Write a sequence for this structure.
């Protein structure tokens, strides 16, 4: 047995998928790629206003002032096809991408066998899932793919062809032959013969038809004959999860962008949920009217399918984004992964809510700057104050999220016993320029923004230099000094002058 | 009244599963919720350490009174206990090269102004992921500090009392009115201190402790230790 998922007005449904509230209104789809751009598909509300296929946009607007004209989008049709195939694949491993908006499924080996009632309830589930993606589908079930397609076209929303004396032609007898889209000349001959339904065609017999109308008629007969099901051209849907939209008007503020983006996140999350996966990464692409693109990769610290968390992450970032030109298109792609399940050890700990923290990190980065928020990493050099700040929490993949473990053994890296022995230094970044008077090569007087007065005690000089072979070379003399007010400073002299590097505290 | 081990279990569950209804919010402010600093001169008068879910203020009125030393000790203590620590560095003055060891659990926010520091603190306290937040304003200009509205600290207190985190504000003068404890540092170190062990310096750290608010007690406590 075969099932066919048929999506009527596929191009229009694909275009309105992210604006489902428009489906009840008068909307017409114009294919601008045609030589004469004309309406190709329209909603029932538009049809009731007198609009029909083939009209130009201006003609249609003349008939219905409230008509909303939408342009056909191949990108959105591609996304809708992905959704259709991925949904079908979740219900049957043998699927065929028959045509745009048509997917044929082979039901061989399915649990319900030839129980048509069970098959209908199974088909209802498919329709429910597609409805979550704002796609209205019809499903036909029959013993051949062609009959199933015919049933799907006539379904409301499910139609199963009934077996009648071991023939599956019972329910489709009344289907018009024109639904098979035969060659016009054959259709005309059959019409003159009074053969207008599939049942009447089958009653003629294959040999009689072939003898009189040739091989084209034989092919037509085979398509509706229950005895010769054609083999399916099986496909496996690409594991690409993306949603895209080309805006008709340029977007200049973040609100309309977020509105669409939220729907994208909902759709992608549901698509992944269907195959028991969650989002590990988002790739956001904004097409700008200047022809350039803004791209950003979002790694989800703790992969999840929760729409609120995923959307908030994108929202937090986009609120800080300024583009050079208005936005004309949006694409959001998701990289799926398996939900992470991990049993922590007794002495392990991690952040309570890594995704919440990633969002906080993004806000802090926007507040302070990317090089000012994160985890310090000490560089392997003797250069003073050599470190960099890594945004570990953001760049870490799902498996690399920091997990704290109990430090054991004598080489405890954070044990104060084995740490630096000196009093910590509060640094001035950059070091404060100062005037230092020397007597017998020892500093005796300090004049700087932070202190002016005599130096009563010194330690030093400590010489430090390095990287003489490149532009990052340094050479300096350091002193630790105690001033008359009891403060302890570190000062240094280099080729640029004297500086106060910090105060010991 | 539940047994002590049940209370501890609830607190543990609340920390690991924040959405779980464990009545731990009611318990977070009980006398059991302390975080020991590891410094006897602080832990003894505080009857166990810094209170979780409350603000603590460390006042360092002079350079060299040991505020950086204390902050470093708290960071080391927390990292040693597998805790994540946030240091909001009000004037970008923390010398991370002296910290040493594995700093992967240290979250450092290098701010340029007091206003930026307060916004960062607000975000981190709202986040509620980190069990220890240190806000270092010791080096910030007095003019900026004077402009901090008193309501800011009350807002921070409201934020942190919903968690089991500890927030320590290091300041050059007393200004955190709702702080549950105020530690005033009185140490003075000479150049010789640079050649001594850090643990030795920590033992000599002089602190005056004033407990201004204690949960469950209406009267004001004043316990001082030098």
């Amino acid at each position: 047995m075969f099932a066919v998922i048929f999506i009527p007005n596929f191009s229009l449904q694909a275009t309105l998928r992210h604006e489902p509230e428009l489906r009840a209104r008068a909307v017409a789809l114009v294919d601008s790629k045609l030589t004469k751009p004309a309406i190709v598909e329209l909603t029932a509300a538009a049809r009731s206003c007198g609009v029909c296929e083939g009209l130009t946009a201006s003609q249609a607007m003349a008939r219905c002032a409230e008509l909303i004209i939408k342009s056909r989008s191949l990108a959105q049709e591609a996304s809708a096809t992905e959704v259709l195939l991925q949904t079908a694949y979740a219900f049957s491993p043998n699927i065929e991408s028959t045509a745009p908006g048509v997917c044929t499924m082979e039901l061989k080996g399915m649990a319900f066998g030839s129980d048509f009632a069970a098959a209908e309830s199974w088909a209802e589930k498919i329709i429910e899932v597609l409805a979550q993606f704002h796609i209205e589908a019809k499903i036909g079930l029959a013993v051949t793919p062609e009959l199933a397609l015919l049933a799907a076209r006539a379904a409301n929303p499910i139609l199963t062809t009934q077996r009648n004396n071991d023939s599956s032609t019972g329910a489709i007898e009344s289907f018009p032959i024109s639904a098979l889209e035969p060659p016009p000349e054959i259709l005309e001959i059959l019409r003159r013969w009074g053969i207008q339904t599939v049942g009447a065609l089958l009653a003629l017999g294959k040999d009689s038809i072939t003898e009189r109308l040739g091989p084209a008629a034989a092919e037509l007969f085979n398509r509706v004959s229950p005895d010769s099901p054609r083999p399916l051209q099986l496909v496996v849907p690409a594991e690409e999860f993306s949603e895209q939209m080309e805006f008709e008007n340029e977007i200049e503020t973040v609100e309309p962008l977020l509105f669409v983006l939220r729907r994208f996140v909902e759709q992608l999350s549901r698509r992944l949920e269907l195959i028991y996966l969650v989002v590990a990464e988002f790739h956001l692409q904004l097409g700008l009217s200047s022809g350039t693109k803004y791209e950003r990769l979002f790694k989800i610290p703790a992969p999840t399918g929760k729409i609120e968390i995923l959307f908030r992450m994108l929202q937090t970032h986009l609120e800080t984004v300024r583009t050079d030109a208005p936005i004309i298109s949006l694409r959001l792609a998701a990289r799926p992964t398996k939900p992470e399940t991990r049993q922590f050890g007794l002495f392990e700990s991690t952040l309570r809510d890594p995704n919440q923290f990633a969002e906080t990190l993004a806000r802090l980065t926007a507040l302070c700057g990317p090089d000012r928020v994160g985890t310090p990493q000490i560089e392997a050099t003797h250069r003073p104050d050599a470190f960099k700040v890594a945004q570990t929490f953001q760049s870490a993949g799902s498996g690399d999220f920091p997990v704290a473990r109990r430090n054991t053994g004598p080489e405890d890296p954070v044990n104060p016993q084995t740490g630096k022995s000196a009093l910590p230094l509060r640094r001035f970044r950059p070091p404060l320029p100062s005037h230092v008077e020397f007597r017998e090569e020892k500093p005796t007087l300090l004049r700087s923004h932070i202190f002016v007065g005599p130096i009563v005690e010194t330690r030093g000089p400590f010489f430090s230099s390095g990287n003489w072979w490149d532009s990052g070379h340094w050479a300096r003399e350091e002193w630790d000094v105690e001033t008359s007010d009891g403060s302890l400073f570190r000062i240094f002299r280099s080729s640029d002058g004297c500086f106060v590097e910090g105060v010991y505290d | 009244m539940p047994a002590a081990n049940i209370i501890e279990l609830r607190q543990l569950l609340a920390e690991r599963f924040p959405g779980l209804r464990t009545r731990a919010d009611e318990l977070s402010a009980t006398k059991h919720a302390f975080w020991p600093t590891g410094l006897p001169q602080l832990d003894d008068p505080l009857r166990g350490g810094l209170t979780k879910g409350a603000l603590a203020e460390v006042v360092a009125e002079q350079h060299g009174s040991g505020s950086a030393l204390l902050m470093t000790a708290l960071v080391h203590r927390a990292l040693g206990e597998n805790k994540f620590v946030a240091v909001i560095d009000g004037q970008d003055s923390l010398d991370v090269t002296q910290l040493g060891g594995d700093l992967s659990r240290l979250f450092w926010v290098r701010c340029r102004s007091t206003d930026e520091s307060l916004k960062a603190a607000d975000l981190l306290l709202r986040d509620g992921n980190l069990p220890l937040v240190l806000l270092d304003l010791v080096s910030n200009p007095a003019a900026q500090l004077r402009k901090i509205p008193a309501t800011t600290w009350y807002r921070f207190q409201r934020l942190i009392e919903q968690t089991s985190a500890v927030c320590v504000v290091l300041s050059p003068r007393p200004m955190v009115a709702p702080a549950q404890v105020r530690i005033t540092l009185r140490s003075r170190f000479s150049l010789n201190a640079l050649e001594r062990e850090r643990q030795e310096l920590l033992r000599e750290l002089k602190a005056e402790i004033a407990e201004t608010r204690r949960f469950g007690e209406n009267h004001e406590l004043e316990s001082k230790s030098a």
